[in-house]
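Try it yourself: sequence plus guanosine-5'-monophosphate, in.
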Amino acid sequence: MNHDSKNIMVILSSPSGAGKTTITKKIQQKYQSFKISVSHTTRKPRPNEIDGVDYYFVSQERFKKLVSEGKFYEYAKIFDNYYGTLKETVNEMIKKNDIIFDIDWQGTQQLSKFKNLKLIKIYLIPPNKDELRERLIKRNQDSPQEVERRYKAYDKDIQHWKDYDYIIINENLENCYKQIENIISTNKDTSFKFSQKSQ
Ligand code: 5GP
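Structure, out:
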């Protein structure tokens, strides 16, 4: 992949319900240079989700075909569904934009193997487990069984915090967002200087 050294890739991971999606959208609104990587998934759309905006919703057959054709940079099975990031989309986007990925720890591990990618890996943690359950219930997007399942996955998910460059506790959305902004501007600045020097 031709990775322009001044464009960065920010990965935001967290246990389900830690507030990632809201933050991802906020970053894109604030920074014109950022594009969100829209993943493919076999999960059914939630009532408020739009195909091509939140995800590309595809069948298992379609997903498996894309896997067999080697089209994904990374993909993972999460809560019985597949999620993946297409190589072609990322390769095109990074030529002109910074990219933000909302992917899990499995995808992060796979992307990390590509040593030429300038990844900034951020892991968001909810302040405590009770708060996590509250958020999962409040967002009112999944069945009670699905909420329980996602809640239970927390302990396993959180073990992967060590794979990340930054860990942020999302106690307050505004503070959390500010910390991410700081991380982005520091890294953008460094990569800008780097690209200037290397020209
Ligand atoms: P949800 O079903 O709540 O939209 O997402 C479930 C999990 O899948 C979240 O942790 C999200 O970050 C992760 N996810 C979404 N897209 C991708 C992807 O393309 N690759 C991987 N590895 N994880 C993804």
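One thing you can check immediately is this: The first helix runs from residue 20 to 30.
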